């Protein structure tokens, strides 16, 4: 129940890896899985005479290099780690991202055979989760189902008060990393402790970076989606 077996984690939690917050941990692992999948596809494309990827060849374990095996292991261990972290948003984000990646690979028509590898990946991840213990994950989702009104209203209150904070700070926001210290002045809900984050990345960006910073972030996202769309049209 310690970070790096040295530092006590908040509340004696042992499911957030090297992070104090399990939410941050699951977010980092989700990003790492995306990077690993991208690297795996790039290396698979470079193995053949063309850039057309036979995804099933990645699962030819004997033919894989050590780097390929490490990337495959990261995908499986990352999926299990997100579930074991008990972060509901982290797990939902992982499932959504997996579905989107599968759909995009299918749309490009440059990746063949994504069906069975996806099924195999999900099966192995589920077996790993059973080995680590699935009960805490189920209990975590049951709490949200048992009292959905409280679970939703808490997030709605945070978003409402964060919007007030964003309007108050205006164009340039309160500054990156300042949410925990600036938000209490706008917190109208009755809850124990202090909210360290808005539980909504978009609203927190708006509050900390202001309208100018949020516009820059939105511009970056639009450019990224535009680039992806152009790539899909070229490969379709």
3D structure, described in words:
This protein is mainly alpha-helical and 236 residues long. It has eight helices and four strands, in the order ββαβααβααααα. Helix 1 runs antiparallel to helix 2 (66-84), helix 2 (66-84) packs across helix 4 and helix 6 (148-169) crosses helix 8.
Gap between N and C termini: 49 Å
Number of E strands: 4
Q: Major sheet: size, sense and barrel closure?
A: 2 strands, antiparallel
Order of helices and strands: EEHEHHEHHHHH
The order of strands across the largest sheet is: 1-2
Uncertain regions spanning at least 5 consecutive residues: none
Number of helices: 8
Strand content: under 5%
Radius of gyration, whole Å? 21 Å
Structural class: mainly alpha
Q: What is the helix fraction of residues, given as a range?
A: 55-70%
How confident is the prediction overall: mean pLDDT? Answer: 76
Q: What spatial form do the alpha-carbon principal axes imply?
A: globular
Q: TL;DR?
A:
This protein is mainly alpha-helical. The chain contains eight helices and four strands; from the N terminus they run E-E-H-E-H-H-E-H-H-H-H-H. It has helices at residues 22-45, 66-84, 88-108, 115-132, 135-146, 148-169, 179-182, 201-235; strands at 2-3, 7-8, 53-54, 111-112.
Helix/strand layout:
Layout: E1 2-3, E2 7-8, H1 22-45, E3 53-54, H2 66-84, H3 88-108, E4 111-112, H4 115-132, H5 135-146, H6 148-169, H7 179-182, H8 201-235
Parallel strand pairs: 3-4
Antiparallel strand pairs: 1-2
Helix pairs in contact: 1-2, 1-3, 2-4, 6-8
Descriptors for this entry?
236 residues, globular, two-stranded parallel ribbon, two-stranded antiparallel sheet, 8 helices, mainly alpha
